[in-house]
Give the backbone structure.
Amino acid sequence: MTGELTDDVAVAGTFNGWSKEPLTDEHNRLWSVDVPAARPGDDYRYVIVHDGVELRPWRPDPYATAMRSSLGDSAAEFPGGFSWGYNPSSIFTV
C-alpha cells in the first residue's frame, strides 16, 4: 500500500475473520504485511487511519485483480500462481 498521508494501515478479510492485521510502514511510502493464511478466493479490504480517524467504509484494493462488485470486497486471486518478489500491483500493495 502506498500513502504519504496515512497514519496506520491494516488489512482485514476472510483469511483472519475480518480482524485488523496491521501493516508495517516501510518509510518509503509503502506499507507491507505477510499474511500466510491468505488463499486464492479470500475477500479482503484495507483499514486506513488518517489524522487519527479510521476511514469508513473500509477500502477495497484498487489494484486487486478481482472484485466481488464495484463497491464490494477485493478478492485474492493469483492467476498462474503468485510471485512473492516485489510487485507493486500485488494484492497487498495499493
Summary: Residues 88-94 have pLDDT under 50 and may be disordered.
